[in-house]
Amino acid sequence: MTVVDGRAPLKRPLVSVVIPCHDYARFLPQCLDSLLAQDLDPQMLEVVFVDDESGDGSLETARALLGHMPLGSWQSLALARVGRPGPVRNAGLALAQGEHLLCLDPDDRLLPGFLPRCLEALSRSHADVAYTGYYEECGQELREVRPPDYSPLLLANQNILHTASLMRRTVYERGARYRSATAYEDWDFWIQAAALGAKFVRVDGPQLIYRVHDQGYFSAAVEHDGESKARIVVDNPTFFPPWTRAWARGLLRGEDWASPCGRGLIPVLREHAGLDRQGPGPSRDNQLPCEPARS
Prior knowledge:
Oligomer: single chain
Number of strands: 10
CATH architecture of the domain at 1-107: Alpha-Beta Complex
Radius of gyration: 20 Å
Largest sheet: 10 strands, mixed
Structural class: alpha/beta
Order of helices and strands: EEHEHEHEEHEEHEHHEHHH
CATH topology of the domain at 1-107: Spore Coat Polysaccharide Biosynthesis Protein SpsA, Chain A
CATH class of the domain at 1-107: Alpha Beta
Number of helices: 10
CATH superfamily of the domain at 1-107: Spore Coat Polysaccharide Biosynthesis Protein SpsA, Chain A
């Protein structure tokens, strides 16, 4: 890893924004401009730009843009090709100095007021992570996504948080990291945070724009949906009930009874995991690699 350039902070930034990038130079002006439309003094912001060996001049574009922005501080890093956004985010988080941390993909952009609203929600609720609704932008179409209020069971079932959710630095300091064992790296990250005691608060209304396109990493991730979900369960066993852990291990072993279920959904009910009394799962006397269910 190489620190290429930057401007050192005079004091600890209020928010560090980590931007991982591979060949997204064309999106950078909009993404970075959105940071200056936050009703927040840009001197309170730090940007950590991490380039995953782009071939389209992303690093040079970012350095030129950041050098002319009135930010409190910024850093740019160049990595040898990683190929997964999670480790690239980790590299940026390791250098970020802010009291609060935000991972923002370069093809996404914050709507005005995102940061002040999230900061206010964290302060008011004493939560550790603030998440918002957002618009999915696909070509000329916008679709509003309205996440529900947080509950552990809901997060275990599906990812209700966008990657660009604002967290206190303590979430990172407790040990949450992006892991490459699953293609759903952000879902795994939020489950780690929850298992480490993080509290979550939802901010009303859409507060960012998530661009959906063929080159996005999510499009490739859905091809490995079942395995990726099972890896989340196996790597965070204390967050899931025993039948879900049995389902995950069965799926990874290729057992016929362990269905991948719907895309983006992890079964958290016994019957959905294939372990109901009349279902196709293993018999009750089968030695499952997990604790027995507790009533």
